[in-house]
Structures are given as C-alpha cells and as structure tokens.
Amino acid sequence: MITWEEAKVDRQDMIRKVVDLLNEYNHTATENGVGTMLDTFWTNKNDIIEKMVTHPDYNGNLQIVFTEPFDRDVNSYETRRFVENLLTALKARDKIVNEKNENGFTKNEAIKMQTRDLPKIIKTTDVISLEMKPIESLGEFVYDSIVENWITRASRGKFDTTVALVNCFKYYTKATLDETIVNDIKDICPAINVSSGMKTSKALWRILTWAGLNGKEEQSVFTPYGDMINPLRRDLTFVLSVNPIDYLKMSFGNTWASCHTIDKLNTRGMSNHYSGAYCGGTISYMLDGTSMISYTITETDKVNPENYDKVYRNMFHWDGDGTLVQGRVYPQAKDGATDLYKKIRLIVQRVISMMLDVPHISEGNGNDTWVKPNNAREMNFIESRGAHYRDYNNYEDCNVSKMRNKDRATHMVIGHNTICPSCGHEHRCGSEYIVCSNCR
C-alpha cells in the first residue's frame, strides 16, 4: 500500500485545503471529520494512486497533467443567438423592404397615376422617367404592419426569402455545408449558388450578398460568425486526477456549473447551478475505488491545476485493470462536428495503458489496445452506491471500453456513502447534503 509520503502528498496540508474549501461554500467541516474522510479515500483509491505515480506526467499532487491539442468546440447557443439577431443587427428590413415600385412611385402615387392625375404627379414629384412602364394593377403593393405602410410585394418577398434562408443556419453548427442544408437553401431560392463542402460562413455571406447586405458596415457585423463556426485548434492543459479538491470542484466550470456543484448558493454567479442538488455526489466519487476525474483548463499550471475553472469535465470509472466506464462530458455532450467523447476517451485510455506498462495502439485498424464491445452501453456489471448522479446510466453517449485481451467487463462499484466532513460519520442523508443532519 502506497503512503501519502511516497505519493509526495502532504496529508495535513490536504486536510486543511478540504476544510477551507468546504467552509468557504457553507458546508461545515473540521480537521477531524475531514481526516477520517480522507483516510477512507486513501484506502479505497490506493490501487489507482499506486499506478498513477508511475506515470511520467505525475505531478506529485495526485494528478497526471500534460498539454493536449483540442479543436475549439462550436458553441451552438452562441451561433444560434448570432443568427437569430443577424438580420436585426444588419437593419435588413429597412434596407430590403421598399415602399416604391420600379417606376419610383409609392402606392398612393400609383393610385394617382391610375386616376390619370398626371399633371399633379409631375408637379409633386418633379421627375418622371420617360421610359416609365404603365401600371396595370395595384396588386404589386402589400400592407406591412411592422412599418405600418404599403410596400412593394417584390421587396416583401425578397425580405421573407432572406429570413427563410438565414434561418437555415440557426441550428447549424458544422464548419462546412452538408447535403441537407444545401437542399434546404435551394428549395427556398434556387438562385443561391451553394454546394456541399462550402464553408458555412462563406455560404451565409453569399446569401447576404444576394439580399444586398454586403457593404462594409454589414461585413463588420458579420465577421464574428466566421470565428464562431470555424473550428480552431488550441492547446489545453489536460488533467486526470484523484485529488480530493478536484472532486469537490468537479462542477466549477469556466462558464458553467452542474448539479454536483458544492456552491449551493451560487456565489460564483453561474446561469444555472441546479441548487447543488447532487453536491453529495462529490464525496461519493471521492471515496470509492474506481472514479477518476478528467478535465481541461486553459491555464498552463501543471502543479496546481485544481485552482482553475474547467473547460470540459468528464468522469471515468476504472477497475484498475482493463475495464473503463466513461461518464458524460460537461458542459456539453457533442459540440458541432467535434466528438469530445471519443477524443477524451482516447486520451484516458492512452494514460492508463502507460500506467499499466502496456503497449498502446490506437490506429482504428482492428488491433487497438482498447475496444468498445458490441454492448458498450450495457452497464449491468456496475454496482452503484452513494449520492452521485448516475449519468452513466442516463446518457446514451456514456459507454464502456475494455482492453482487447479482456473477455468481459469486471464487476465495478461506483460511488460510496457520504462521510460527514464535520463529525466523520458515514451518513445517507440524501444527494443534496454533504454534512450529516446532526452537524447541520
């Protein structure tokens, strides 16, 4: 059994950090209570810790940390909001909708023309084209309730078509067009020249150009969309951890929180913190013998990455050998064309292979070290305990993988009953509580 000292971790310092963090977020904690909790943690996680310290990127803080390239995810909320507000920002209605017909007359002026009040028209408008076409019907005008005036039917049609075309991009998050959106665009307006594989930003700009919304002012408004929709590769700091602080801060995202947050009062000011309904799950994961937390940060600190808010977080549950369960990726599942599940899973598999001193192959040629069995969503070998949310049972993208040389997934216990950080006694007070009822 590996000791705290052998893992290069100061037990007393860890106790103080846990006490301070829990008290900061209004969960009563004492050094005695947390000491009891961390002793259980150390016993149950010992097998994983013993393997972690052999990894070349182990940092002496119960974490394996290294730099990993990630494609920037497309934020579907941001792109949708941008597209929804685009035509308003471009003042498209004012620029496309026209109150005058091709002869230069409004409806009232056209009525006067039909009543042959030509001398008055000449007097009031000063100029009439000598090539003016005869007006056959007032049906070329329609009433627009928004501008509260009569406009030409042609300009209204063009505006409505522009709205329909732009709306094709509202929920579209791929960097290039696929056949589906190309067909949608051509069904609305065959005159728009787009094709599968064209950059999404280029296609939308082509539509705006068709609508006459392609000046310098419009280009300035449109430019951010190209940055939003086109993937950008960036280096992130990747962490695989069993550090107790990381479990407690597992829902401290850079722009998000989840139901496991210990910040029940939302002092961090997240848009949704779910009232920390599963905050007790942080202790549940911490105290079992299988759960590891993986996450990424933008900062380059490889000594204390737990001090920074997370970009992505993904729980993994490992039997210490050849069975691995992947939980849900937070804050989002799949971002655009980027399969985060596969990306993060391959990284963790690579790390585990190195911890087990097993040659790692990941080429997709049938000889990979890790494989996903046909029943990769089957979780009947898992025994769940404690207060955590069972996302591995509730999200279809969660999955099982195993080493090729293993016949089947082995029995795995995920979670542990909560130990009160105040008195040190085990309790089952519910997922929303870290501290037992006697200490609250």
Are there runs of 5+ residues with pLDDT below 50, and where?
117-137, 334-338
Note the overall shape: elongated
Report how far apart the termini are.
35 Å
Q: What are the secondary-structure elements, in order, as H or E? A: HHEHHHHEEHHHHEHHEEEHEEHEEEE
**Spatial sequence of strands, sheet with the most strands:** 1-4-5-6-7-10-8
Mean pLDDT: 87
Largest sheet: 7 strands, antiparallel
List the helices and strands and how they pair.
Layout: H1 11-24, H2 31-52, E1 63-71, H3 76-89, H4 92-96, H5 107-114, H6 118-125, E2 141-144, E3 149-152, H7 153-167, H8 179-188, H9 200-210, H10 216-229, E4 233-241, H11 244-248, H12 281-287, E5 291-297, E6 312-318, E7 323-330, H13 340-355, E8 370-371, E9 382-384, H14 391-394, E10 399-403, E11 412-414, E12 418-419, E13 426-427
Parallel strand pairs: 9-11
Antiparallel strand pairs: 1-4, 2-3, 4-5, 5-6, 6-7, 7-10, 8-10, 12-13
Helix pairs in contact: 1-2, 3-10, 9-10
Describe the model.
The protein has 440 residues and is of the alpha+beta class. It has a domain of 258 residues. Helix content is 35%, strand content 15%. The protein is built from 14 helices and 13 strands. The protein has a seven-stranded antiparallel β-sheet with strand order 1-4-5-6-7-10-8, with helices on both faces. Strand 6 and strand 7 form a beta hairpin. The longest helix has 22 residues. The radius of gyration is 31 Å and the shape is elongated. The two termini are 35 Å apart.
